[in-house]
Amino acid sequence: MIIKKFQAPTEAEAILKAKEELGTAAVVMNMKTVKHKGFVKYFKKDYVEITAALEEKTYVTGGIPHKEINEEVKKNPNIIYEEEEQHATSAIEEKLNNLQSLLENKMREDVDSLREEEREERIRKSEEEDEKLKFMKLIYKQLIENEVDEKYANQIIAEIQPSIKKDTNVDTILALIYQKIILKIGQPKKISLNSGHQKVVFFIGPTGVGKTTTIAKIAAHFKLNKNVKVALITADTYRIAAVEQLKTYANIIDVPLQVIYTLEEFNQAVKDDRNYDLILVDTAGRSHKNEEQCEELYHLVEDCELDESIEKEEYLVLSATTKYRDLLKINDVFGKGKDYSLIFTKTDETLCLGNVLNLRLYSGAPLSYIADGQSVPDDISTIDPQMIAKNVMGRNLA
Ligand SMILES: Nc1nc2c(ncn2[C@@H]2O[C@H](COP(=O)(O)OP(=O)(O)OP(=O)(O)O)[C@@H](O)[C@H]2O)c(=O)[nH]1
Ligand SMILES: [Mg+2]
Questions:
Q1: How far apart are CA 320 and CA 203, in angstroms?
Q2: Which residues have a beta carbon within 5 Å of ligand 2, which is an ion?
Q3: Model-level pTM?
Q4: Which homologous superfamily does the CATH classification assign to the domain defined by 199-393?
Q5: Closest residue (by CA) to atom 6 of ligand 1?
Q6: What spacing in Å lies between the alpha carbon of 371 and ligand 1's midpoint?
Q7: What is the pLDDT of residues 68-114, one digit of tens each?
Q8: Residue range 57-75, pLDDT digits in tens
């Protein structure tokens, strides 16, 4: 018995093939439509497969036409049976199977290479993340090195973090931090005059920070650059030299100076200066460690009696060279419950200005002026937030 499979696009063609090879005596035992599976189905159409059988004797002697085969099948339906799949491996199927496995391998390679790309992408991204992180750490380190309080350095970094997206580069991070610091520094507070209103400005702070020098600088600026009518009052009578020092400046700048010893004298001095637009008041520097030091002029700013129309302003003068912990204490003692602004002196004597930012954030008081030298009247300017931001973010070379 010869059993053979024939495949063709149609049933008729398959039978014809069987007839051609096995002769008309062959019997169709099974017929099925084969649907391609896997990738092959995209390239190959379905086909018809018949299983034909022939008695060997008949095979040798030739066969009957395919029409007769069909007749035979109709007559003997029982001879049609499902043949085992393993016998069904024709050359074309083998080729297709090979092609399928080839395609599947190729696909697997593609997937593998995709994964490879994905892996690389992930590595690249994590490297970028790493780079960003490293960069943020570097800036954080710079802030710390420039004496920004850890608390505020952390705050700044934490606050910009939500703005950092996948495609944010290091330049943008730098800009974000820079802007954040500038925002935190805020608008500088300047002494400004409202027409029709006299202004009395008090300068308070510890000894030796540069209160008197700063007053001389500001007086000169308003008198000489702004043509403002400026008068000086000093309550700092502890040292003869202190009065002499301010007298010298007053003479040079050509502004009146009154020296007062009591609260009453102060109130009177202001009245006497009624024709002056800006009255700058020098106070005695006192130690922030000695809170008990209770003098009549200790609470001069609060206790003085000024006319309603007079505007009052207070500036706490701090030296940029003072240790951070002392600055906090000074701020607490001098600034307690007050509405004041901060002046930093001696910025020329320190490389890093972290404390300027720290005190701004600690006190909530606005920053106003920066004094960067002993020279009167030149070494003073309104605080420049960009300069402070650059300073605390940058590497300061000695
Ligand atoms: N390098 C530097 N020195 C300054 C600056 N401002 C003031 N000084 C110096 O600091 C010293 C003290 O300055 P003063 O103006 O007398 O300080 P003060 O706060 O009035 O001192 P007391 O009246 O004693 O409380 C002086 O030698 C000033 O020349 C500054 O911005 N930079
Ligand atoms: Mg002084």
A1: 16
A2: 211-212, 242
A3: 0.70
A4: P-loop containing nucleotide triphosphate hydrolases (3.40.50.300)
A5: 210
A6: 10
A7: 545 554 555 444 333 444 444 455 556 666 666 766 676 666 666 66
A8: 544 434 444 455 455 545 5
